[in-house]
Amino acid sequence: MGLLTPVAASGLETLFPRGILPYLIGGILVGFGATVIYLSTGIIAGASTFLESTLSYVSDVERFNRFKYVQSRDWRVVFTLGIVAGAAVWGLALAPNPGVWTTDVQWWRLLGGGILVGIGTRLGKGCTSGHGVCGVGSLSETSLVNVATFMAFAIGTAQLVAALGVAP
């Protein structure tokens, strides 16, 4: 309750509806995980690269079969499956209302958004986890520019959608 009071008093309760603590713990765990992966393997823990490396199992495309992908793909698959399994465990068992779909957004909009994010990830040479957590943390100029671009487009899109009155 102590961490909720300053949030409520500051008027930020809409940004942090469950208080600051869950977000703080989540951020610390993400940063710790990225640090452990980097220190133990020398590989930046970007989720899109991890997912892309798993394609070496099913594709002959040269890009997916780079030596570093094939050499490390087994543990990358475990990492990728862990992301999916962690979300599933939370959604089905640990969430405040387990088993309830938490969005009113139609499936086709989620699919379209996912495709656009995938295209952006490829064009930006990485995802928000790679650039935002690892790249910014290492002061990579490319990552700083990419994160600024992600944020500008996300804020702009949210403002445009709100102005147009588009509902889920």
Oligomer: single chain
Spatial separation of the terminal alpha carbons:
32 Å
Binned, the helix content reads 55-70%
Order of helices and strands: HHHHHHH
Strand content: under 5%
Taking Cα atoms only, what radius of gyration do you get, to the nearest Å?
Answer: 18 Å
Low-confidence stretches: none
Secondary structure: number of strands: 0
State the major sheet.
none
Average pLDDT value?
A: 81
Tally of helical runs: 7
Question: What class, by secondary structure content?
Answer: mainly alpha
Shape estimate: globular
Describe the structure.
This protein is mostly helical and 168 residues long. The chain is 68% helix and 0% strand. It is built from seven helices and no strands. The chain is globular, with a radius of gyration of 18 Å. The mean pLDDT is 81.
Key features of this structure:
about 170 residues, about 70% helix, globular
SSE arrangement:
Elements: H1 4-10, H2 21-41, H3 47-54, H4 67-94, H5 107-123, H6 128-137, H7 141-164
Helix pairs in contact: 3-4, 6-7
Task: Please give a quick description of this structure.
The protein is mostly helical and 168 residues long.
